[in-house]
Write a structure and sequence with these properties.
Blueprint (H helix, E strand, L loop, with lengths): L4 H7 L8 H10 L18 E11 L6 E7 L4 E6 L9 E4 L23
């Protein structure tokens, strides 16, 4: 089970200055097993604000797929996205494929079913 350190601090008196590794040591000493400590959300370098300028709903797939055109003010990109919780004009976090915060699946590749090039 994954437990965020912020959640633990809500229920146990753990000072903000105590690092996560030390909390893991203390939990283990108390008889609780800690498999790993993972830092998440710390490297968001390269993430910029992008504005969605066009959305094309792609059909014929198992789940909803959207082909979106996004501008960051300096570049324009076409992006395949499975999320449906935004509309044209929304500003969203955008991580280009070369960005450290981008997932391994974020990379340039040909996509079938898109009408725009």
């Amino acid at each position: 089970m994954r437990v965020p350190l912020s959640w633990l601090r809500e229920y146990a008196p753990i000072d903000e200055s105590v690092p996560a590794a030390e909390v893991a040591v203390r939990l283990t000493a108390a008889g609780l097993e800690v498999e790993s400590v993972e830092a998440v959300g710390h490297d968001v370098s390269g993430v910029v604000v992008g504005e969605v300028t066009a959305i094309e709903e792609l059909t014929g797939f198992r789940k909803p797929i959207r082909y979106c055109h996004v501008t960051t003010g300096t570049t324009e990109r076409d992006v395949i996205c499975g999320a449906a919780n935004f509309v044209v004009g929304d500003r969203v976090p955008f991580a280009a494929p070369c960005c450290p915060a981008a997932s391994r699946s974020a990379r340039k590749r040909p996509t079938a079913g898109c009408r725009r090039a």
